[in-house]
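Dear Dr. V.,

Thank you for agreeing to look over these. As mentioned in my earlier message, I'm a first-year student in the group and I'm still getting used to reading structure tokens, so any feedback on how I've presented them would be very welcome. I ran two proteins. I've put each sequence directly above its structure. The first is here:
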Amino acid sequence: MLKTALLVTSLVLPTAVFAEVQADCSAKMNGEARCEFANKGKQKDSSCVVIEVVRAYEATMYTRPSFGGKGAVLTSEKICSGLVEANDIRERTPSNAWSINGTPMSPLAFCESDNPWEKASTNCIMTTKVVAN
């Protein structure tokens, strides 16, 4: 009986079909964003992401300290792939808006510092986060 159960399980698993849409996104400090969605799966599917710009230092480092220090997040609008066929790629360059706590702001304004030794591009870390479609 045990051998039969294992055989049935091993026959069912390989026939399962999965989609796997992965996003590779980048953003410029002016807010222009670009995402490439690649479907590595075996069926068509879609995915949505947001780009997050996260402050790396204490609030006093930034020109606008009222928006928080280390860990404060500026978030892009949701960027969706649309339907992507299996083993295909879709590129999206949305007209993106960014905000923190409802306040519109560019990544440059969010990350800039009054300290001339600190460059805005190194004061924050960009990440991509998958969100619900």
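The second protein is here, in the same arrangement:
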Amino acid sequence: MKDNRGFLEGVYNKAKLLERKKAKRSMVYKRYARLSTVAAAIVIAIPLLLYRGQSSVPKGYTEIHQIQTPRVYSIDDPMLNFYTAEYIIAGETREVGKSQFAKEDNYIYTDITIRVEQVFLGDIHKDEIILRVKGGKVKKEKVFSVMEGEFKKGSKSLLFLQEREGIYYLVNGSESQFLEAEKNIFIDKQGNKYKLDDIKNYINRR
């Protein structure tokens, strides 16, 4: 019995020792795998961050971080554009003006000439309006700031606006520009599409 008990204890102890070694190898492997994953993520992320940094700010320019005005409404609900805008129009970008740098306010702005194609809300009796957006690139002072919205000559947008002293502004920055995806169909930043009838119906619910 004693010999059998000693034999069984020996087998048991050996099994425990093997189990510990196995657990240790597993732990080392998991730690190595975790470190490898983190290292791979860093290797991938660093070039992307560098690329973004280099591509977002023009070479030789200083980026201006402009003061953000409080949002009129939540970014998560683009429908509220219809309830807060003073004017809602569909228009075509005719000209993107030269960006201006207001040094005293550390502020860059760009005036966009918009040809008014259709007025859904508000009284606008002009063929063209001036839309002033934040941001732009000023060559003289070598300063830069990301511009609100996407404006290219010939592109069409649905715009939600307010007006001050004859100049129009986006109600909530770039969130208040719906780009034309197809003829008379506009798309917001979240990918929702709006036909002309949809636009009129939402305005009628105000």
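From my reading of the second output: The chain has two domains: 1-56, 78-204. The CA atoms of residues 160 and 176 lie 5 Å apart. Does that match how you would interpret it?

Kind regards,
E.
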